[in-house]
Amino acid sequence: AQTVTQSQPEMSVQEAETVTLSCTYDTSENNYYLFWYKQPPSRQMILVIRQEAYKQQNATENRFSVNFQKAAKSFSLKISDSQLGDTAMYFCAFMKRRRAYSGGGADGLTFGKGTHLIIQP
Amino acid sequence: DGGITQSPKYLFRKEGQNVTLSCEQNLNHDAMYWYRQDPGQGLRLIYYSQIVNDFQKGDIAEGYSVSREKKESFPLTVTSAQKNPTAFYLCASSILYSPSTYEQYFGPGTRLTVT
Predict the structure, then answer these.
(1) Contacts of A116 in chain B (CB under 8 A)
(2) Percentage of residues in chain A with pLDDT exceeding 70?
(3) By the 8 A CB rule, do B106 and B96 touch?
(4) Distance, in angstroms, between A17 CA and closest chain B CA?
């Protein structure tokens, strides 16, 4: 079984600052995906960024980037030039990747408990 | 306008009653999932289905049941056997067997309160 740990229950930064959210995970799998999801006060889950474990290059989406350290099983999210609209719960999630010969497909996500990020004006 | 709908947004039930939460998607996705979210917790997987008439238990399936009679629909029944049913329930879907296999799209959720 996989576990995902987010050690920062809450973080607060000033608008325009850079903030890094931490995530570590534990798995015996070699092929998997990692995600960061955002949940604003509306409670709608929104995918922020994803990383395939076999790719060494860190994923980047505009102001969002990750630092993926496979050996350390670490997957942190960096938000640059933070904006008021970034205020939300952020969840780190893990998904095991199935091989095509076993039928492919995908299992569910394993989530961390989340980090409540507050951007102050 | 493609997406996932969950209804109703808020649901109230008396203890001892079964209740069914609706989840419909028009994204033509193969797989569908149910998660539960409690305060201070991340989402936990209840059930998932990759094909019509087939589904698998997730981490916290006890007290829940599902059906998948149509590709578009994956209703979740919270039975009276579920000890702490009050929670926020999220439905998700994803494509299988493609480069974007791994991305799950979420519905807006249903807040269930049992008293």
Answers:
(1) none
(2) 93
(3) no
(4) 26
